[in-house]
Amino acid sequence: MATASRFPATRSKSVAATAAFLLTATLSPLLSAQTTSLPDAPTPSNPELASLNPQPLDLAFFTADPFQQSTSQNPAPPSLSDLGLTPDQTKADPDAQARLDRRTHMLKVHQKLGLLTTIPIAAACISSAGATPDKNSYGNTTSRDVHVGIAGLAIGMYGATAYYAIRAPRIPDSGPARGGIKLHKYLIWIHAPGMILTPILGTMAFNDIASGHKPTGIAQYHQAVALTTAVAYGASIIAVSWPIHFPHHGAQ
Amino acid sequence: MNLRYASLLLLLCPIASAQSDRSFILDQSTLTYHMTHPIHEVDGVSHAAKGKGVCHTGQCDFLLAVAVKTFDSGDSNRDLHMLQVTRGAQFPIVTVRFRLPESALDSPNLDCDLEVQFAGNTTHYAHVPFHQVMEGNRHHITGTVPSTLTDFKIDPPSFLTVPIKNEIPVRVDTTWSQQ
User: Fold this and answer.
1) Residue A65 domain-assigned?
2) Nearest to B99 by CA among B70, B128, B67
3) Which end of chain B is more exposed for a tag (fewer CB within 10 A), N or C?
4) What is the interface pTM, i.e. ipTM, of the complex?
5) How many inter-chain contacts (A to B, CB under 8 Å) are there?
6) Which residues of A touch B52 (CB under 8 A)?
């Protein structure tokens, strides 16, 4: 009987504790609002009493900001940080943009000059037919002078074209060249030395002809070097345009 | 004791309801822009997009983001020009946001209103159709965004002095998994 009479007492304590717990949870925002205006609880000066003083109840869980609670119930749309993108990845880089702008501008000039340079190169190739001396006509220099003038213009324009490509700013972390630009760059190793060697051999050949005899030694290779250079130059233009899509292929 | 359990359940109820919201993560993606020039047809591809979708109270908000510099057209020189003309260093990320009713998520055809931020400009595309195939909790979504250069105030780049076409459709092939 004694045991049976203790159960209702325990149960009533339990109910009271639960009610107190729920009440604390409900009123916790109010409690937290009032804590700032309430004075601190007195602390016991006796160390023995202090050791008996119970730890204050941690109300952090119950005093959560009601606004935060409502936002967690209405989650905001995903943001870039939710995707794991760091500010470094998303921030603007005006210096890099300026570098890209300058690069594009210089390469556009390179492209236009390069296309225009094909005209004097082609003209130099055509005029070379008249530059070769016929038998016993070594004294006629007009056609050779025309060829030299046109070739000089071609070399000057080629130099200007190369300048704009060389001086265009490099873009860091852009990786190795891929695609048509790769072959375009490889072909530089043929037409750039060719553009230096061709006028040197041409001058030697010119002097040989002016002396009244056919070009000898390496001067006799002037024409071959010049043609190789011109072909490599043309191939370089096609390479950077590759692959070319012809409109009728698309129609099919 | 039962009252304790009931009160604990009462307290945890909001947490339980918050966990019932669906969210989606972009698993795989292939975004492809198509550029047309009289002598060139070019596709630039990126597999580096990131995306997330969050559903709440019957509405789902999605965000998809991709760095402009991750598009690869097979030619590094062209890619750098693309980065310049689209102001990709100034505005490095393309974002696509759209909202769908949660009830539409299981439909094979999705009608999306997209908000695209690109090259410092924002453009809305209404009623863009997407096709969806579901495999378990994975949603494979494909479609094409009918974007143009003028939508984002991009000067058309030219090659051999001839400009490219204004239309730059972007093909979207994404796989989202439900969390």
Assistant:
1) no
2) B128
3) N
4) 0.84
5) 124
6) 78, 82-83
Residue contact A171–B14, C-beta within 8 A: no
Distance CA B168, CA B142 (A): 17
In a domain, A88, yes or no: no
Closest to A204 measured CA to CA, from A231, A188, A225: A225
Q: Quick check: is B102 in a domain? A: yes
Instruction: Nearest by CB to B50, from A85, A180, A246: name it.
Output: A85
Taking only the tens place, the pLDDT of each residue in A79-108 is: 999 999 999 899 999 999 999 999 999 999
In-domain check, residue B9: no
Query: What is the domain extent for residue A245?
Result: 94-251
Letter for the amino acid at A212? Answer: G
Question: What range defines the domain where residue B141 resides?
Answer: 21-178
Q: Which residue of A has its CA nearest to B63?
A: A78
Please report whether residue B103 resides in a domain: yes
pLDDT tens-digit map of A178-221: 999 999 999 999 999 999 999 999 999 999 988 888 899 999 99
pLDDT per residue as tens digits for the range B119-178: 999 999 999 999 999 999 999 999 999 999 999 999 999 887 889 999 999 999 999 999
Tally the domains of chain A: 1
Residues A70 and A87: their CA atoms lie apart, in Å, by 27
| Domain annotation covers residue A184 | yes
Q: Tell me the C-alpha to C-alpha distance, in Å, between residue B170 and each of A171, B69, B91, B125.
A: 26, 15, 18, 12
- Helix-strand-coil percent breakdown of chain A, rounded to 5? 70, 0, 30
